[in-house]
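FIELD: query
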Amino acid sequence: MRTTCTAIILFFIVFTGLRAQEKLLSKEEAVNLALESNFGIKVAKNQVLIADNNQGILNSGYLPTVTGTAGATYNRNDTRTEFPGQLLDDGSPRPDITLDKAESQRYSSAVNLNYTLFDGLGRFYNYKRLQEQYQLSELQARETIENTVVQLFSVYFEVARLEENEKIFQQALEISKDRIKRAEYAFEYGQNTKLDILNAQVDVTNDSINLLNTKQQLVNAKRDLNVVLSQDLNEIYVVDTVVRFIPKLQLESFMAEAKNNNVALLQNEKNLAINSYDIKVNRAGYLPTLNLTGSYGWNRNQNAPSAFLSGAIFPGTNANINSLSFGANLTWNLFDGGGTTVRVKNAKIAYENQELLKEQVALEVDRDILNAMAIYENRLNIFEIQEQNVITNQNNFERSKEQFQLGRITSIEFRQAQINLLNAQTNKNLAKYDAKLAELQLLQLTGQLLNVDF
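FIELD: result
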């Protein structure tokens, strides 16, 4: 048994030395790492970049289109012209006319310009719609960031809780090992029985198992945190276990401004604006479209020689042509079978649905905020009770320890006092981080999660 205890002591000495070399990962550093490296946040930021490209002038339809064309044609002909039954003036048959390797070339190039001067304001409203879509993508990215921050701290605080529990179980193990020594000394002097030593050994075994399980849970939790931070899974660090709560008056002021800051409500406002522009874009189908066109072209024709009926060969010709043209086209779809009317009606219905959804979301957000505040206050009260419970159990343990050393209580009673303190300490840790997570969820609902210090 002494060999086992010695091995455990050596393990903890080595482990403590390793822990002393671990760096501290503060809450601020963890948030910054997540913002820089988290894969979900990177995807959300790329979506914002796409929306930014879509709202640019290059995608607005306000710029003209310019196209260039060019072409070349080459022809080579061998021609034989016959005059059957025809005679010359002297009565001899009219000879055939042969024209070999008659070559002709044609070259052309043009630049065409098209510009929509007026399209019923559809282009204008679509541009406004894309700007609203960009702002909506920013809100969606913010929602992703907020959800990631909450996920980050749920794992971060789990690591912190397990680190504190590890210290608690380690202290419990040291107390149990000290009991073994005292029981062995007392047994040697005939002050107790072998049973006290066995009880202490059982407690050492249980405390060792609890500590090893907590260490394994801590390693797994750190890997979970590394996944959120998108870094090496075997990264070594310790976290900050200090928790600070925001004053209640400040939380109440956040709640009062929640309708102006809640990301779900803000997204709904943007969707309403987008649907409003959808109606206007579809109404543009009732109005005419005016297009301007312009072109500049150059052509060169090199014609092959040709034969006259008289038998003479007419030489080839070259022609260069430069052309410049402008024009305007007015198109008015007087009746399109009712398609524009149907699209406008459907856009109006979609807008009405979005208004109904806005009312529903507003009601749900109010409910969620009130529930989150109630949960936070309840968990904060539980944490305060657990703090007092730790003080009570600490005093009880110290008193029991004195009585045990004086031989006035049994080892079973002393162990029960130790277990009560152990449970009180671990319950306090759980209550502390539960309360902080409830506070973060309340801050998220009020739209202030990214505006406070953690």
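FIELD: remark
Residues 1-20 have pLDDT under 50 and may be disordered.
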